[in-house]
Every structure is written in structure tokens, then in C-alpha cells.
Amino acid sequence: MLDQPRRPGSGAATAVVAFAFWITMAGTTVPTTLYPLYGEAMGFSPITVTAIFAVYAVGVVVGLLLLGRLSDQIGRRPVLLAATFLSVCGALVFLVADSVPALCVARVISGFSAALITGAATASLTELLPGDSRIKPATVALFANMGGLASGTLAAGVLADLAPEPLRTPWIVTLVLAALAVIGVASTRETSAHRSGFTFHARLLHVPAEIRSDFLRSATAAGTGFAVLGVLTAVTGLFMGQVLHESGHTLAGLVVFTAFACTALGQLLVRAVRPGAVLVVACLGLMLAAALMAAAMAAQAFAPLLVGAAVNGLATGMAVSHGIRDITTRSAPRHRGASVSTFFAILYSMLAVPAIGVGVLIRATSLRPAGEVFSAAVAVLALVVLMSLVLRRKPAGAAA
Fold this sequence. Notes:
- It is built from 14 helices and no strands.
- It is mainly α.
């Protein structure tokens, strides 16, 4: 007799929640490889592309701070329904968008859908999968989340190259899948046994005093990696078209797919690294990724860019995992929720702000020098974190 039998239908419910998580996150990266096409159709510049992308990250941060506790208050199912419905709405707006303001509205909707589903789906998967399950809830959530971010951009690139109406076909496919997710979630049962009832409360940012220095190091390293992810998401299509003169969109999608897929892989590989060395390895990886991206710009080559995206993803995933582990194991329990929200608010802010800065640099100079300056900034930030780790360990070595 099993100690923790699974409820009837829990396997199907797990698949539905994971699929809803995946398609919602995929919808947020579908525009990545389409930005050059939108630019041609609407006549806007690279700085507009980065601004449109940044609007998404702002939507996620605001959503996390304002609505991060919503599924604890009213239940997982209503929030999952709202998130998938917003994903449908975002796809609809993109489908009919004919102006920059419409694209910005669609991106804000996408940001809120991502903010809502991240906590609700992760919590729901934890409640659906028993503690002794061979497949851990965190692993399912990780691959649904990062798998969606990765596959959305690659699928959009392939569809833009092969299917008719490249600015419509990816959104029709996304719309159909998101609608299926809404129907699937509507057919599931509530998984949360305890709900506090809705009260509007913006979650305050909180940096735990007991691990403040380690928190800031992890947030800086992971944020640096997220900055690279943001810039890759915003301008890879421009690099492929303007620098490599590649008219297809699949390769641009492949770069961003690789970056996000390796971010998920990095969060799994961190288990093979000694805890005290994780952040050192992550910083070295970020510096190597910056060098590879600078080489791609200087040599006008695709291979260094793809490898750099992979290395950056691995390093970012390790830094994220290290930061979350510190928060969940070393910070005061009463502040953990706020601390995790602060951590991700920093990451998504870093996803947005540097992308805008690169857009300004592109406008002032051109794509190649802007990319080289950004790569140098990434290397410097990673080096600062690395040096702080070295200096922190010196007194211990001297005392020995």
C-alpha cells in the first residue's frame, strides 16, 4: 500500500497546469524573433524595440509586487485561469496590433500573465505532486517556465520563416494553445486547502539583513546574466539582419532558445558544484560569455554568439539557484516571501533597464559598438562580484 496515494485525476491535472505554465511563458517570448518584422512594418528604430521589450519586464515586476500573493489568498485555480486568459488576450492584441502603443499594451498584458502564473503554477504543482514522487515539482516548474521561454522564440522563428503571414501565424498558434490551456485549467479542481481571502497589499521589497552581502552578490551576478538575456531577446534579430545579413528568423530564435534552455540546465547542474564555489563559477562563466559576445560583434560571426548565449545561460541559472537556496535556507521564515519577490524584482529590472541602455547606444552609434560596450559592462559587473568573493575569503585564509 502506498503511503501517499495520488488523488484520482492528479496526473492529468499536473499535465494541464504544466502545459498552462509552458504556453503562458512561451507567449511572452514569441515576439522576440518578430521584432525586425514589426520594425519594417511600422517603421520604428532599434531603441523602440528595446523599449517595447522593457515594458514586458516592468509588467512582470509590478505584477509580482502587487499580485504575488494572490493565489495564496483566493486559490490557485482562479489565478491560473486569469493568467491563461490574459495570455489569450495578449495574443489577440498582438494578432491585430498595427502600432507601437498596441504592441506595448500586448507586452504589459504578457507581463501580468507571467507574473500571475509563476507563483500560482509552481504552488499548484507542489500540491499536485506527492513528496515521494520521482518527478519533483520544482523540476516540472523549472522546465515549464524556462522551456516555455525557450520554445516560444524558436517556434516563432520557424513559423515566421515557413508559414504564411509571419506576423499573424505565430500568434494564431499561440492563441489556440492558450485557449486550450484556459479550457484545461477550467476543468481542474482547486489544489489549495487554505485560502486567506483577498486583501490588496503591495509586497514590500526586502533584503534579508542576515544574508545581505551574499544576497546582493547573488542578485548582482544573476541580474547581470538576466541583463544579457534581455539584450539577446531584444536585439538578436537585429544582429542577425543588420550585421550578419541573415534574412531568416529561425537562427535568431535558436540563440534565445539556447540562452533560456541553458538557464534551466544551469539550475540543475548547480548540484554538481560545491556550494561555496557556485558563485565563483557563475562569475567566470559570465565573463567568458561576455568575451564570446564581444568576439561575435567584432568578427561578425554567429558561432561565438550562440556559444556565448549558452555559457551565459548556464552561469545565470547557477547564480539564480544559488540566490534562491540562500534565501530559502538562511533567511528568516517570516521574510522569505518578500525576499524572493525582491530577488526576482531585481532580476526582471535588470532584464529591462540594460536593454533600453543598449537601444540608446545603438541609436547613438550602431549595433556593433553598442554590443561591445555592453559586453564590457557585463564582464566588469561579473568581475566586481568575483573580486568581492575573493576579498571576503582572504581574512579567513590569513587567519589560518
